[in-house]
Amino acid sequence: MTTYQEPGWLTKHVFNPIFEGLTRLGIGIRGARVLEVRGRKSGKWFSTPVNPLDFAGERYLVAPRGETQWVRNIRASGGGRLRLGRRTETIHAVEVPDAEKPPILRAYLEKWAWETATFFGVEKHPSDAELARIAPNHPVFRIEA
After folding, report:
1. What is the pLDDT of residue 26?
2. What is the mean pLDDT of the chain?
3. Which range marks the domain in which residue 93 is found?
4. In sequence order, what are the residues at sequence separation of 6 or more whose Cβ sits closer than 8 angstroms to the Cβ of residue 141?
5. How many domains, the chain?
6. What CATH number has the domain bearing residue 93?
7. Contact 63/71 with Cβ under 8 angstroms?
8. Is the pLDDT of residue 66 over 80?
9. Is residue 2 part of a domain?
10. What is the pLDDT of residues 37-62, one digit of tens each?
11. Is 1 inside a domain boundary?
């Protein structure tokens, strides 16, 4: 089952532009970046603010809203760019299997719950079983520079 939680008007037209603008100025709140990915159909570059996660010596992108356009595009292209201010990092992204996601989701929620917890629909301190249950609804990609 694929899920997608579309952002509301306030998120789409106020919060995301503010966070994206700050990130473009070089102010990445708690490590936020702008992800740029080529469209799978148009080939045009699209951007969205994301919250990369450093965990167990690796870096990850987690899709709290599920099967978003950036998820579909990064699957098709295999990568993109992470931007903070003028610094751009070209990345390759490898999707993580559902069985490997629970500890990554736990770490993501510990760091970013204040912003994204509502999209996961789990308790404040979810059990391993809860994380395994929601794993298929939240794509995760390991970032390779």
Report:
1. 72
2. 88
3. 9-144
4. 60, 61, 74, 93, 94, 95, 96
5. 1
6. 2.30.110.10
7. yes
8. yes
9. no
10. 999 999 999 998 899 999 999 999 99
11. no
